[in-house]
Amino acid sequence: MKKQANLSIAGIALACALTASAAPVRVLIFNPCGPGGYIHPISQQTPLIKKMLLSPATANLQNPVIPPDGFIVDSVGSAIKNGTTDDGHALVLALATHDVVVCINNTQFSGLFTTADRATFLAWAKGKGHGVVALHGATDDNDTWPDKVTFFGGKFTTHTTAPVDVLNDSLPANTGDEGFKAINAGISKVTKVTDEWYSFQSAPRTLAGIHVLSTLDEKTYTPDSRMGDHPVSWYRNPADGGRLYYTAAGHDWVYFRDTYWLRRQLYNGILWASGWTSGVSIETKPRTGSAGNIAQASRASLTAQVTREGAHSVEVCDLQGHKVFAQRGMGARMYAVNGLRPNTVYAVLVTTPNEKIRQLVTTR
């Protein structure tokens, strides 16, 4: 009897408009704290995030969307310690060559910027094709930069370390939004997560432009300050005043290492914040009758469906670079790839004259 292997496959919609050329998503990591700010135990967080972006398989991400030319990851500012306005100025100078800034636990954030550099940073953050990703202490309660507090979505008040049920938000205004779908792709609706959890001065959901991604179930722990409705990660769209993804998780680099929910939502959030789109959709279960999908799967086989007219090629490789399937075609075609190993990561590459789209798939 053939072994049942549930292949979670990304459906790549080739019917979308193709771009003439692609470029890497350029990510800038910024981790200094302002003068006197609490320094979080994040010594390994920057290298772990860099490794995750450059090689998603090493972070055990299931079916992540991978931009055609991958990522370039840089960092700027002092090492993990209290910085100065020189660090903020170094960030501002580097903005022009990057798509996304990842702010890691920058307590006393306002103390890192001069008045002029504050204005430059927020103007860039609200510009087309730019995005800000912020973790945990970036909503430091000692921040004295009101416009930044508004942009990031609030300040924390108290915190408690505990295992908590994290829930995908259920508000239809959020769940039907493309940002919600992209950032929560591949994430379970309920997952138990241990971290240092914040409560906030104002309910983030009530703030202009904020869309909630995840909430904490207060029935599963005892917060220092109950909020009732307790958002823990959120985003804002460009139309709402700039592209931002924030999560209150990430107090300790060990939590990042050990928590799939945090790694996956952060990876998705960085890609979404860059503004990169390819028409790629992700399905966690096989489905039939989809005209726009490149890939579906059942048992130990992979079915690749190309709906785009014109020439194309489909290749499937394992992560050691061994090619297990390669075929060229013209027009709408269906390809069957058999003999795949269970519990193995493969890369599916679809090439047209104008674009290459790479997607990881995992057998189970």
Concise structural overview:
With 364 residues, the chain is an alpha+beta fold. The chain contains eight helices and 19 strands.
Structure characteristics:
single chain, 364 residues, alpha+beta, Rossmann fold, Immunoglobulin-like, 9-stranded mixed beta sheet, 5-stranded antiparallel beta sheet, 8 helices, 19 strands, 19% helix, globular, disordered N terminus
Give a topology summary.
Layout: E1 9-12, E2 25-30, H1 45-54, E3 65-66, E4 71-76, H2 85-94, E5 100-104, H3 115-125, E6 131-135, H4 146-152, E7 156-168, H5 172-175, H6 178-183, E8 190-200, E9 211-216, E10 231-236, E11 244-247, H7 253-258, H8 260-273, E12 280-283, E13 295-298, E14 301-306, E15 311-318, E16 323-330, E17 333-337, E18 345-351, E19 356-362
Parallel strand pairs: 2-4, 2-5, 5-6, 6-11
Antiparallel strand pairs: 1-12, 3-19, 7-8, 7-9, 9-10, 10-11, 13-14, 14-17, 15-16, 15-18, 18-19
